[in-house]
Each structure stands twice: as structure tokens, then as C-alpha cells.
Design a protein that fits this description.
Layout (H helix, E strand, L loop, with lengths): L2 H8 L5 E2 L5 H11 L3 E4 L8 E4 H11 L25 H11 L3 E6 L2 E7 H25 L1
Length: 143
């Protein structure tokens, strides 16, 4: 199964933060949305960076609470790993594991079209495993 098939079920809404927001605003938005990361985008169409709860915590631990007043562009990850709608789920799992990342934006022609979290991938894998188990049970009972 590929990213596009899952996006059709999941939807392609992506929450973003502007690069000029301060870190406190990003924390507030993360809390409101109950998400672990926000893409940073000037206009909501491109990926300028990504910031996660982990990024915020690491910077607070190093620099103290003053980091909350700094622009998110100072602490965001600039070199964002992305995927395309044609990538398969095995590739996403491999990329997330190797890079130790929990969020992958979906980009097509340099335009942001969705985002995947590790939770989305795990949910898909569980559904796939349950479907396969059901199919095997049905095969065994009708054979």
C-alpha cells in the first residue's frame, strides 16, 4: 500500500506554524491541537521546517525559558525529510526508523499535501494485520 491510499482515508489536512511565531505560540498550538509536531511554513503550501515537542524541550533544557520568546525558525529543523504520495508504507517505516523521526510531510511538486506520523503508520499496520488474520481464519474455516 502506498501513501496516497492512506491519505485518501486519513485526509490531507496539515497544521502549520509561521516561521515568525515565537516558541511559546508554537507550544500553545501544539497543546491546542494535541499533536507532537507542527510543520513550519510561510504560507501553508511549502515546508520551511518542522518543530516538535522534543525540539522545544531540548532547547529549553539547554537555554532555559528565554527560548520561549525566540522565533520558532531559530529552533526548527530546517532540513526536513519528506515523502511522496507514491512511497509505500514499508519505505516510510524504514525512513522513520533509520532517521529516528516521528513525522513525515507528504510533498508533491514542492507543495505540501499531507503529513504522516508514526502513529498513522502503526494504525495502518495494525489494520492490515487484522485484515490478514481475518482472511486466513475465513480461508481455514471454508477449506
Amino acid at each position: 500500500m502506498n501513501v496516497d491510499a492512506i491519505l485518501q482515508n486519513k485526509g490531507n489536512a496539515v497544521e502549520t506554524a509561521r516561521p515568525d511565531w515565537n516558541v511559546a505560540q508554537v507550544c500553545q498550538r501544539l497543546n491546542e491541537l494535541e499533536v507532537g509536531a507542527l510543520l513550519v511554513s510561510k504560507g501553508g503550501q511549502s515546508v520551511n521546517g518542522i518543530v516538535s515537542e522534543r525540539d522545544v524541550i531540548n532547547h529549553i533544557a539547554k537555554e532555559g525559558a528565554a527560548v520561549l520568546d525566540r522565533p520558532v525558525s531559530d529552533i526548527m529543523i530546517h532540513d526536513v525529510v519528506t515523502c511522496t504520495r507514491d512511497d509505500d508504507i514499508a519505505h516510510l517505516m524504514e525512513t522513520m526508523t533509520e532517521r529516528r523521526i516521528r513525522h513525515l510531510p507528504v510533498v508533491e511538486n514542492d507543495v505540501l499535501i499531507g503529513i504522516f506520523s508514526i502513529g498513522d503508520v502503526v494504525k495502518y499496520r495494525i489494520q492490515e494485520t487484522e485484515y490478514e488474520a481475518k482472511a486466513l481464519r475465513e480461508y481455514i474455516t471454508t477449506a
